Amino acid sequence: MAIWCMGLALDRWRLAEGCAAGAGADAEPLALIAETAHGPRIATVNAAGAEQGVRPGAMLADARTLCPQLAVRSADPAGDLAFLENLALWAQRWGPWSALDPPDGLLVDTTGTAHLFGGEAMLLADARAQLARRGLVARAAIAPTAGAAWALAHFGPESAILEAGDDLMDRLAGLPVAALRLDDDVLLLLRRLGLKRLGDLAGIGREALARRFRNRRSPGANPLVRLDQLLGRVPEPLLPVVAAEQPMVQRRLMEPIRHRPLLDRVLADLAEDMARALEGRGEGARRLELAAWKVDGDVVVRRLEMAAATRDPAHVCRLFAARLDDLDAGFGIELVRLLAPWTEPLALAQAELDAAAERHGTSLAACIDRLTVRLGAEAVRRPLPRASHLPERAQRWAPPLEPLPGLQEDFAFHERPLKLLDRPEPIAVIYEAPDGLPRLFRWRGGVHEIARAEGPERIAPEWWRERSSVRLRDYYRIEDSTGRRYWIYRHGLAGDGRGGAPEWFLQGLCA
Amino acid sequence: MNRIEACSKVHVLSPPLPAGLRRGAVSSLSKSARWRPGIAASCRHTEVFAAGGEATGAALALALARDALGADADDQRPWLWVQDKAALRLSGRPYRPGLPEHLRHRLIHVAAANPEDALFALEEGLRCRDLAFVIGEIAANPRALDFTASRRLSLAAEKHGTALWLVRLDARSDLGSARMRWRAAAAASPPPRWNPQAPGRPAWRAELFRAHTFQPGYWTLRDDGTHLAAAPVAPDHGDLVHGIGARSLAAG
Question: What is the CATH number of domain A248-370?
Answer without folding.
Answer: 3.30.1490.100
